[in-house]
Amino acid sequence: MSKFKVIAIDGTAASGKGTLAKALAKKLGYLHLDTGSIYRAATVHIIKQGINPYDEEAVVSSVKSAIIEAKPSNNETEIYLNGENLSRSNQLRTSKISNTVPIISKYTQLREQVRKIQKSIANTNNVVMEGRDVTTVVFPDAFVKFFITASLDIRSERRMKDLQKSGEDITFEAVKNSIKKRDYDDEHRDHSPLVCPKDAIIIDNGKNTIEESVTQMLVTIKAKLDSNNLTK
Ligand code: C5P
Q1: Is the CB of 105 under 6 A from ligand 1?
Q2: Which of 1, 34, 89, 196 has the fewest CB atoms within 10 Å around its CB?
Q3: Looking at residues 183-191, what average pLDDT do you find?
Q4: Does the structure show a pLDDT above 70 at 1?
């Protein structure tokens, strides 16, 4: 068994799991890894290369030749594509990337490539890792598992504000449709679909404030640490 712990978090699109994972990692002194950013980096790559996202063979081969790295920086993990730090640019979270990423994230070989990055981070760090299959496929034996939800309207409202802040002119209906479609695609793919495992603690991040959700999660983790006579 690894001497490092994984706090695994999955959840629907725009549920706020990134914000929660980040806050939790800071409080625990763990590293935060947003695995969606890795799939987003792969998407940035194929779009730059002019690859048709529906052409599985071309996508897999192109992403294989890309250098995608997750490098720890304080409590965060920054994602690099061919040497460029994408986490410090606004390329990862555009609507185009959000709408294209579920098309390519269902390809088995691409998921295996991403999984290697996830495993290697967890081999050398205590980590709060969030995504769609962290609690189920990548780390089914994670120390603690959470599943984050919020209503579609709340998620759409929050995502619309984020996109508008970054300069995108987008309507509430367009954001809502995009989130709905992304959830549907993520939940219905053959490989590693988004599901809430029985042993995950469900956090309703629509009813709760961020602080309330983080507190609820910390209480659960502390209880688990205490029951194992651990401090960290
Ligand atoms: O979390 P985020 O919204 O950034 O994820 C973007 C997309 O990446 C998801 O909609 C999903 O298609 C894909 N993803 C995945 N498995 C993960 C994380 C993200 O398939 N573990």
Answers
A1: yes
A2: 1
A3: 96
A4: no
